[in-house]
Amino acid sequence: MAFLDRKIKFQYENGELMIGHMSVSQAIAIVGHLPCYVYSRSMISERINYFRSLMPSALKLHYAIKANPSPSVVHFIAKQVDGLDVASHKELRLALETQVPPKNISMAGPGKSDNDLRAAVAAGVTLNVESANEVDRIYQIAELLSVREVNLALRINPNFKVKGIGMAMGGRATQFGIDEDCLAAAIKRVHNPADIKSLHIFSGSQNLNSGALGVIFQKTFETAERMIKKHGLTISRINIGGGLGIPYFEKDQDLDLGFVASVLHQELEKWHKKYPGCMVEMELGRFLVGEAGAYLCQVVDKKKSREKTFLVTNGGLHHHLAATGNFGQVIRKNYPIAIATKMGEEPTDTYDIVGPLCTPIDTFATNIALPTAEIGDVIAIFSRELTAIRPAHTIF
Fold this sequence. Notes:
Largest sheet: 8 strands, mixed
Low-confidence stretches: 385-396
Structural class: alpha/beta
Shape: elongated
Distance between the termini: 20 Å
C-alpha cells in the first residue's frame, strides 16, 4: 500500500487520472509496482477538518486503525486526531510508535488473544472489555506482569435497537460487548472499581441514515447514564462509537453530517452539564479514509468467452475483497471503476473485469461499460460513483 508525499486531489487531465499534481503513470513509477493503493493526504485532512468544523469542540476524534493500517497513513492521521483504536497486537505496536499517549489508545475486539492482552496491559492502553471472562484474563495477565492498575472500558451491548442502521453490532444477540442486563456480573469481577475508566457503546457501522444515527446517539447517552446510576460507576470517558458511512454505489446518498452534528451538540451539552469531567470520544475509520484512496491494477489479458469480453487483471479479491462483492453484499454490485489513462472517454464496450485467482468469485465488475480496453491498461477502483466527473474536476 503506497501513500504518496504530494498534496493529492483526484482529478484527471488529458485523459489521465491525476494524483495531486502527478499523473497516474508518475504515481505508479514512485510506488514501483502494480497492484497498489494510493491515498490522498489532502483529502484525509479535508475530511478531518470538515468533521471538526461541524461537531462540538468537546468531542474527541479517534481513528480506528483497522480501516487502514498502513503505517504512513496511521502516522499521518495520528497527528490530527485525539486518539487511536486498535484491534490487534500489531496495530497496537503501530499506534505506540506515534505520538499518541497510551491513555488515548484503546483496544477493541471480541477475540483478543493473550498476546493482545499482555501487550495492552503492559502498555497501559484502554481495554474495551467484551465479556466477563475477559475481565478475569486481564487481571491474571496484570498479576503476571506486576501491573497494579489496568484501564478498563466496559463495552455494552445495549438493549435498544434502531431500524435503518447499516451493519448492526448491538441491540441483539451479538459477539460484541456485554449485554446490558449482564453488566453487573462483569463488574463484580473487577478488582478495583477505579479501574473502570470508560463505557463503550457502539451499535453499528456503515450507516448512511442520519436520522437513525441521531436516534442511536440519543439512546447511547441515555444508556450510559442509566448504567452509571444503576451500577454506581465513576468514569472519565465515554466512547460512543461512530458508524458514519460512506457511499459506495449509485443509489447511495451522502450522510447528512450536519444533522448528526446538531444532535451531538445537544447531547454533549446535556451530558457535560451532568458529567462535566467526562470526555466524549467518537472513533471513525472508513469515514476518514475510505474516499481518499484508489486501488490500481493492470490488465494482463483480454479475452472473449462466448458473448462476454473479459479483462483479466493482476489484482483480485486477495487485495480488495469488498470490490468483488464478497464482503457482505447480498447482491454483487460494481464499485466505481475507470481506465486510469482513458478518463473522460465515452464507453464503447462492455466488460467483465476479473482477477488472476482460480475461482469465479474473483470478479471486480460484471457488464461494466468502459472505453476500449487493452492489455497493459491500468484499472482504477474507487469508492464512489464517477458519473459527474469532468476534466479538471475532483473525482470524489
